[in-house]
Amino acid sequence: MLTSDDIRRSYVDFYTSRGHTEIPGSTLIGDSTVLFTSAGMQPLVPYFSGAPHPSGRRLVNVQRCLRTVDIDEVGDDSHLTCFEMLGNWSLGDYYKHESLSWTLEWLLSVGVPFERLGVTVFSEDAYARSIWRRLGVPDERVRVLGREDNWWGPPGPHGPCGPDSELFYVRDDGEWVELGNNVFVTHEQLPDGSLRALPQHNVDVGLGLERILCVLQGVTSVYDTDLFTGVRSVVRSLARVSDERAERIVCDHVRSAVMLVGDGVRPSNTERGYVLRRLLRRAIRQGRVLGIEGPFLRSVGRGVLDEPAVLEVLEQEERRFAGTLRRGLREISRLSVVDGGELYRLFETYGLPPELTLEELGVPAPGWEEEFSRARDEHRARSR
């Protein structure tokens, strides 16, 4: 059975043998425009417009990424907060045919069954559709979709973008699980929303390591791959109650937190530090669901990385929060209505992230962000 290390090495070797240069991955701390590195292409944005990259026009790497947009989905079979992206790029060099055919060739070379692959293409990209047809993908496994599904970017209000073609693994139950994406970066979206053609055609390929491992290791969940063997065994040894979703959330959030702390992030109430704090406190809450009593983040974190300085940060945050969690949860149980002001009070008094409170209540609170911000600003004004 191929391991995660085998797949990383295979991917890089495949593309270096086709003229690509391996470049180092960046940290999870994004540039000034984003909180975190959420895709391997982010450090390469300046080069899509024609600026020469010091390592050439063909590049490959494995990049750790972090996305919080799907945090509520964490705990299912396929979503993670922190994941690894296998990426290769063409900066004004090769284009669609090489990109799509090489992606397919590599997937087949490591054992992804051809008959289980499905693809989507942008409705206006007849060329990409014709390439897949020539590569033997039958029409019933090609979905032609519009801009909302198969137009990538920009990653912010403006920036590079273009049509894409996504690859999926078709499961026994018929569900299509995305494995990765070939993005053809041809345009720049301007601040006014208009598009301007870039001076060169670029290719940005990103494949999810964990989801590919699911296929190759014969499991249905990313949490059953070898990447989670260590951390999951620790969680299971500590848990007194069986709850698969809670177990997965603890594994994911502690793993993500270890990587963030290792890259220099520290818990706080703003920006990156707040995301880290939210992950840790949500993990602590789910640990209680599992019946884990007493401090446990250091033990679980050691299942990811045995680095004392990193583990100490986790332990300090757990000590800071654990004393107020029980009282805060008791207070939540008494609430009949909730709004942004009440969420802020619970945050200020008990350190409960508003997202955790809403998750605990299981009720919507439309407009809570604005009310929360107003209550926070009023509190700061009174405290001056």
SSE blueprint:
Elements: H1 4-16, E1 21-22, E2 58-66, E3 82-91, H2 96-109, E4 117-122, H3 126-134, E5 142-145, H4 147-150, E6 151-152, E7 159-170, E8 176-189, E9 195-208, H5 209-216, H6 229-238, H7 244-262, H8 271-289, H9 297-302, H10 308-333, H11 340-350, H12 354-361, H13 368-383
Helix pairs in contact: 2-3, 6-7, 7-8, 7-10, 8-10, 11-13
Q: Notable features of this structure?
A:
42% helix; 3 domains; alpha+beta; 384 residues; ATP binding; 9-stranded mixed β-sheet; globular; 9 strands; single chain; aminoacyl-trna synthetase; BirA Bifunctional Protein, domain 2
Number of domains: 3
Determine the structural class based on helices, strands and strand pairing: alpha+beta
From the N-terminal CA to the C-terminal CA, the straight-line distance is: 61 Å
> What is the tally of helical segments?
13
Number of strands: 9
Protein name: alanine--tRNA ligase
Keywords: Aminoacyl-tRNA synthetase, ATP-binding, Ligase, Nucleotide-binding, Protein biosynthesis, RNA-binding, tRNA-binding
GO molecular function: alanine-tRNA ligase activity; aminoacyl-tRNA deacylase activity; ATP binding; tRNA binding
Family: Belongs to the class-II aminoacyl-tRNA synthetase family.
Can you walk through the features of this model?
The chain has 384 residues and is α+β, with helices and mostly antiparallel strands. The protein is built from 13 helices and 9 strands. 42% of the residues lie in helices and 19% in strands. A hairpin with a 6-residue loop joins β6 and β7 (159-170). Strands 1, 2, 3, 4, 5, 6, 7, 8 and 9 form a 9-stranded mixed sheet that branches. One of its GO terms (biological process) is alanyl-tRNA aminoacylation.
